[in-house]
Structure formats: structure tokens, C-alpha cells
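User: Quick sanity check before I run a bigger batch. Here is a single chain. Can you write out its predicted 3D structure?
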Amino acid sequence: MKIFVFIVSILLYPGALMNAGENKGFTVQKDQQDKFWFVDPAGNKFLSIGINNIVPAAWGAKPNTKYYHPVDTEFGGDFEKWNIFVTDLLLKNNFNTIGSWSDPRIHSSGLYSTVILYVAGYADDRCLEGLRPDFEKEVETNIQDRLSKQKYPNAIMGFYLDNEMKWFGKSAWDVSQNYTLLELAMDMPIQDSARKEAKNFLIKKYETPETFSKAWNVPLENWDNLTANTLRGSINKASIKDRDEFTEYAAEKFFSVSAKVVRKLIPGKLILGARFAGDSPDGVIKACGRHCDIISYNKYQVEPDVNKRLLARYWILGQKPVMITEYSWRAKENSSGCLNSRGAGTVVETQAQRAENYKQYIVAMYAHPMVIGTHWFEFADQSPDGRFDGENSNYGVVDIYNKPYTVLLDAMAETNKKVFEIHSKSDIPAIDKLPEEATVIFEPGQYPDRPPFIDLLNGKWIQQPELFCAEDASITLEGLDAKNGNLIVNFNSGSLWGCGMLIFGPEKYAVKSGPVYATNLDGYDAIEIDWFVPKNVTYEIMADEAGVDLPDKAKYNTLAGDDAESFTFGNHSGSGNRETCRFELKNIKPRTSWGNQNGQRRFTTNAMKGIGLYVAGGQGNGKIIIYSMRLVR
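Assistant: Done. Predicted structure follows.
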């Protein structure tokens, strides 16, 4: 059997003979100072410093647009001349790795490659693929196809299994407590094996529908009636625990089978994780760490510093060293004409700022003993007219005319040259515990002239309520004149992330500086809502400071005196009766999906945008009646 596997490996992968027979592949090792390193085939310590998407022409370029294609425009159709230009640029600036999505024909001594295998294909639901029959055969087929395209297999240091899979259920990055892999599986057709696995997972745990109903607090008469919408109706402790366990179960199937096949067919090559999109569920990180040599993740951020919470999560839960496989900064000042209106990450003003951010980020990251690779996104600017998906950003180290950004590259060359020394000499120890969640500081001011409460439904708002919803959801309001004090919220939560509204403060409490809608709502201790919420409908009450905006904004409007944070009281469920619910402001928590994530964690009620209501997706249609919404002492 071993001889058969050996022969199959050679047929599928020409480099297997060298790696299997002479053990010439890369390894990952820890030195006597507890610092991790790659070790190259010659036995030398190695840190992977790379650039992604090095290609001779933009993929899927739109017709009649300007885009990067220098082989035709500059090198007379000669790919090898462009290859020399590219590899010289990389080596001159002290890069040593050709990152993901790069042309497999690129070659030069001193450069190694990393390749994404896409072992489960490209479908949006491929996180569930390990639960389906013949997954192992599918992985073998996909690996064989990918390897057949590699011209220099011996120069490949390792493989990623995938990129930015939707481990959170609805996407690769948005956390939704009632739309996880469990709901995704139950959304599949009845005959789908992933759906059957999900259903059997719950049946095995609870045995009877009655036991399940009691634990999840949702009605279920028989197992045949179990649907994704049934599951979405609950966000209690039992349901969250079950979702987490199912996610880890699906991840274990994916990583264990995939890694086994890779090690069988491509011996001597590293498995570099799956390039997570920022954060990932706990169980997924653990499964990845059990079966891969490296944990890799992509992270664009505002400040050029270590996201210690994220690094700690991957290291502590995964127990493997890490690579940051996508990061970048874009600049308004660029020679491609990129508007940077689409794309991930922060936009700075100048190329000098990009250069400074690179220097600070690399120094900060490699000072940690478990960080052994960083790959910049990407080699060339995107088309100013938009690439295939509309992104039009200045991510490149060269512009669309193949002109290098020398200020940026000079900083890269200088910093990359110091990486080995930085990693060797740093005295920063390995992170040994997850950072504690920041406590929100709330200190109400004193306004003795203000009434004991403010009813946000009575009086004149500074602006009409703001409504928001997913593309398959809707929300409308009745009673906006508030003559009878009642506000009727009609919602269709859809099957995606849901819908919601935000109530602004009274016009008489307007703040003179900052956004036009900013109001001073200081002096109160709690929010009291007299209302009717249908039974088991899950909702959140949120509070936004005046300058609130997207989490990755380079700059927020903080002129009203706040720092643009968003806060939440967490998930609650409706009782089906009219009741008064009280939300103590001292119990508020930061929102991780909205607002300035680098704020002071101080709830600044003297500069507010408003109070929000959010209804999670997958809960159907409904009507919420709000009789009063008060800020009270």
C-alpha cells in the first residue's frame, strides 16, 4: 500500500520524489528562545515575506478599461522579460516569497511560492463539504487539478487549503448568532447530506422534539418540521452552544480529511492553513490548528500595529505559529488614478504614509515569537475603472503602467532587511492568555434642569428615524407623527442579516458641533421601553455615538466630543405580551461589527446619534408596537 501511495504521489506531483526521498521540504521549528521559524530545505531559518497576486495582466479585466498588462505594453509580449523585472524587484527589496494567486510561471533562485489549493472547490457553502459523501475523492481531484498548473513545484514552500471560507455561516467575517453553519446546513435541500448531518446532530443530542423545544425555547412538534427558520428563532445559551459544537464538527471534517489527502499526495510540503478572513469561530481555529502546520489569516486594519486580541486567539486556540496573508494600505496619492472607493482597508493620504505604515506594522508583527510570515496585497494597482468586482484601489507596489512606487518600496527594502534581526532579538514573550474584553466606562453627567425622563417618541426629532435592512428584508414605520405616542414597526427580517431602525434624539438637545444629527442625551441611567414584541422574536437594543461609522474607517467625525463607538445590550427575546423592559446603561457592551473599534470604550451620551433596534434575520414577518422609549434616571 505504501508503495502504491508513493507512486501515485510521484505521478500527481513531480516534486514528490525529491521531497519524500531526501526530505528537502520546508519545516516549522521552535528555537531555544521559544521563537518559531520556517526552516528552508538547506536548513536555514526563514521568515516568509511576500507579495500576493503577482500576475502579468489583471484577471477578468473589464473591456475598454485601463489595467495592468505590461507584457504587452512594455515587454513586447515577452513573458520572460517581465519575469526578470518582477523577480529583480522582489529580491532587490528583500522579499523572498511569491504569494497567493501569482502566475505559476514566475521563477528565480531565492524565491519560494505559496499556492491556494481550493480543496473543496469554490461554492459558497463549501464549509459544509466535509459533511458530504466522496469529499476525500473531491479533495484529491481538486489537488490534482491545481498541481497540474504548477510549473516549478519544487519552489513551493507550502499550500493553503482555501481562502476566506464562510465559517461564520452567512459570510467569512460577519458574526450572526442565529445564522451559523447550522442554519446554513438546514437551508440546504432536504436530500443534501450536510442538511441530514445537521438534523442528525440535533436528534442525537436531544432525542425528542420536546427536549429540543425546551432547550431552545422554540416550538417543534416533530423532527420533520425542523427548518433553518425554526433554529433562527432562538438565541439562548443552549442554542449558541449547539451552533458552536456543530461548527467545530464541520470544521474538523473539513480540515482532517483535507490535510490527510494533502500529506498523502504532496509529502514534504507545509499546510499553511486556510487564510481566514479576520476572525473565525473558536472551533474552526482549533480544528485548523490540529491539522495544519501554520494558521494563516487576512487582516486589514486602520492602525499599523498588532491586533493583539486576534493574534492571541489564533495562537492560544490554534497552538500553531501564524502568517498574516493579506494586509495593505491604500493612498489617495497614486499614479494609476485609483479612487479607492471599493476595497478593504484604510485609505491614507500619501505614498509616504503607506511606507511608514508598512515599517511600523512589520516591526510590530515580527517582534512576536509566533509570527513567521507576512504577505502584502498586492503587486499591481487595480484598474481605476474597477476590476471584475468593482474594486479600484491603490494596493500595488507598482502602478498600472508598471511604474514602481519607490517611496513605498524603499521602506519595504529597508524594513524587510531587518526582519530576521527583529524576530531574533525581540524580548516579547508568547501571548499566554486572551486579552480581557474591555469594560465600557459609563459616567452620566448631572443636568438638574432636565426632566426625570425623555421620551424619544414624543417631541420633535432632530431627524426622522433611520431604517436599514439586508437586501432580502424590509422595515417600515407607522405613527411617525407620534400623536398617540405609539410607533408601529413592521418588519420582514429576510433570511440574511435582518433589519432595524435608529431613533434620533430631540431637536432641542442638538449639539452645535459634529454631525448635524448629534444630540446631547447625557444625565440618564437607563433606557425603558414600553412595548409589544412578538413571542420569541430576537432583537437587540443598540446605542450609537454621534460619529459612528464603518469599523475600518481611517478617520471618524468626532467633533461632537465622542469617539464614534457603537454599543449594544446583547440579544433578547420578545415575550408576546405588552411589557416594560429596562436596559441599564452601565451594562452596555461594545459592538464588534460597527463603529470605531479603537475607541476608548467610554459611552459618551453627551454626543449621540441615537438609540437603535435590530431584528436578526430568519424570523419572518412581524409587528412591534412601541408605546414609549424613555431615557430615565
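The chain is about 25% helix and 20% strand.

User: Great, the batch can go ahead then.
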